[in-house]
Amino acid sequence: MRSVPFVLGVVAVGCGLISSDVTNISLALPPQDFRIDSSDWRMPPGATPIIPCAGDCSALSAAVCTQQNCSVACGSDSVCYAKVTISLKNDFDLARDAPSYHQVSTLPAVSVTVQSVTFDISENTLNLATPSLSVYFGPTSITGPNDPGAELVGTIPAVPAGQTGHFPVAFSSNGPDIVKKYMDDFHTPFRAIIFGVVIVHGGQASPTGRMVGQVNAIAKASLSL
User: Fold this and answer.
1) CA distance 73 to 98
2) 150-183, pLDDT tens digit by residue?
3) Which has the least CB within 10 A, 98, 105, 164, 169?
4) Cα 34 from Cα 31, distance rounded (Å)
5) Which is it for the CA torsion 137, 132, 32, 167, positive or negative?
6) What gap in Å lies between CA 41 and CA 71, rounded to an integer?
């Protein structure tokens, strides 16, 4: 699946348009494209088989899971269902990739904070809701949300099938501080992971369609006089 560049809209400050007064610098960050495409999940067309949990759910796995990120489990209704894991990652090196970020980071007594991050969805032909997606920052060694050093930044809300519009990212209690830590320490590369699980129940139509849009973010650098 093509990586969802959530963090690029958050941290690539040097690409933004900077305007300032004596105590504040407003950072207008450029929009970044993203796409979630069900064709990447490679599930067969048609309805998902209805398979009782008696014994195990290996028959459903054989029928619908054609890639590693797919697994099966038994539901509360004793019918097997499929789970497709969305796990996307981006590595970032601000000192290398955003050299004009130094315009902000080298000012005296600067405190950079992210005010808002919004997913602006312009196209949504998915026939099922996207799951809630969790966003983690950590060192470049992390490969999943449970790895040492992975920290939860926030959550992208579930989006109903076919719905477009503006969807704000809900920060965790210390999410802005996590983002600030990596923005301030711009010489240290880091990794961002977006993680969620799509559930496909027995009898449900196989996922089709895609979601396309842009990520927009607003940040502010405050100066202490």
Assistant:
1) 44
2) 999 899 889 999 999 998 889 999 988 888 787 7
3) 164
4) 10
5) negative
6) 12
What is the maximal distance between C-alpha atoms in the chain?
Answer: 69
Give me the half-sphere count of Cα atoms (radius 13 Å) on the Cβ side of residue 156.
Answer: 26
List of the chain residues with pLDDT < 70 = 1-32, 94-95, 97-113, 186, 217, 219-225
The first and second tokens of residue 193, run together, are 């992971």
Helix (H) or strand (E) holding 181: helix 175-184
Judging by beta carbons within 10 Å of its beta carbon (0-12, 13-18, 19+), is residue 183 exposed, middle or buried? Answer: buried
Classify 208 as helix, strand or coil. Answer: coil
What is the average pLDDT value for the chain, to the nearest integer? 79
Residue 213 token pair? 């849009």
From CA 91, how far away is CA 137, in angstroms rounded? Answer: 10
Has this prediction a pTM greater than 0.90?
Answer: no
197 half-sphere exposure, CB direction, 13 A CA radius = 11
What pLDDT does 70 receive? 92
Q: Are 79 and 202 in contact (CB under 8 A)?
A: yes
Contacts 24+ apart (CB under 8 A), 94-97: 94/11, 94/12, 94/13, 94/14, 94/182, 94/183, 94/186, 94/187, 95/186, 95/187, 96/189, 97/12
Give SS3 for 59. helix
Run of H or E including 6? helix 6-11
Cα-Cα-Cα-Cα dihedral of 16, 171, 148, 88, to 10°? -60
